Amino acid sequence: MKFMLLVLFFLGVIKGLNSVEFETVITDLENLEEYIRLYIKEKNSQYSLTHLITCYIREGAYTEVEWTIAGGSIPEDLSQYIIDKDLLEGTNAHLCQTYRDIELPNNEKLDFVHFFAVMNGIEFGKSYSSNYAHLVGWGGDIFQLLQDIKSQQGSLEELMNVAKNNYFLIKGGLDSADFVSDLDAPIILKKKNDNINFADIIKDYYNKEYLDRINNFINLTFPSLENKDKFREEIFNIYSSDILINILECKDGIREGSFNCYLPGNLKSQYKEHQKAAVYVFSDFLAENYIEL
User: Fold this and answer.
1) How many domains does the chain fold into?
2) How many angstroms separate the CA atoms of 86 and 248, rounded?
3) Euclidean distance between CA atoms 83 and 114, whole angstroms
4) Mind listing the pLDDT tens digit for each residue in 251-279?
5) At 27, is the secondary structure helix, strand, or coil?
6) Is the dihedral of CA 251, 254, 260, 264 positive or negative?
7) Range of the domain at 78
């Protein structure tokens, strides 16, 4: 058994590092959902199906304490249960934890594990626009963009140009696979219920509906988009007042103080333009690509 587990592990690592066919991922996801349904029934588990699926996949890459706070956890025996089912049935459901940048039918890249991690945080936080939804999705990636540019000098416009040209939708920064995950995750999660599988929702979505992702994301996540300047202010206020994001900024040395570091207004003065630049690059891209209906 130990030998087989090692084989499965290394196959997962190898497969996760290479490009994986979309249909392969969908098949593995279908099997995973089937096995988790069986687990819930056999164990009389009180966990929801959606939580177990999203959290199980998320734990393939994100296991830090912040992620446990944001997304909860799975039963200790679930991972072994999935591996045992794979060995018995000759399937690869456990590989869902290893898929990162998969190629979608529309030729986009999707960070699959991050995609489910965002859904996990939203589902666990019970909200699309508060609690942990900021930290695990778009807010956390804006924070990453802020980290990328914090050592740069210049005006707000110059910092925005650095962020846009060197880190936004670019591998190594806030790349397109992360960005697609941030936008699509709440849209997909909104469609999920126990009567329809994630695999079916995802297949249908990437057939055509993804073309409206920016409109759907904005309409689902933010109250309004009147104009670019107001949208900047709206997203900046949400981001800058999020306590969990403030805690991340404290850990990164961007904010003042120790015990009171996360309090409003405690951002170090040398980083105020950097924070705005990171937010505005994100908000401007959404605003510029929003289609008035």
Assistant:
1) 1
2) 38
3) 21
4) 999 999 888 898 888 999 999 999 999 99
5) helix
6) negative
7) 2-8+18-95+104-289
